[in-house]
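Need a sequence for this fold. Nothing fancy.
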């Protein structure tokens, strides 16, 4: 499923954690660029060039299309 919007906004704070790495925190209102929408995931990129996945089930709860 492709979506016409290229940006999403976080509706809540988000902290990304990975073993052996420092946590990355994103504040509510952070804009993320949509790179790809596949199945039940959205691949996004932040201003600091980190890419990660968001679940489409979290749309309108954790994030929303702009």
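Here you go.
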């Amino acid at each position: 499923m492709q979506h016409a919007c290229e940006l999403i906004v976080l509706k809540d704070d988000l902290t990304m954690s990975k073993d052996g790495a420092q946590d990355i925190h994103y504040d509510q209102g952070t804009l993320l660029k949509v790179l790809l929408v596949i199945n039940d995931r959205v691949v996004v990129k932040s201003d600091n060039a980190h890419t990660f996945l968001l679940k489409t089930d979290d749309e309108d709860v954790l994030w929303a299309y702009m």
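For context: The longest strand covers residues 31-38.
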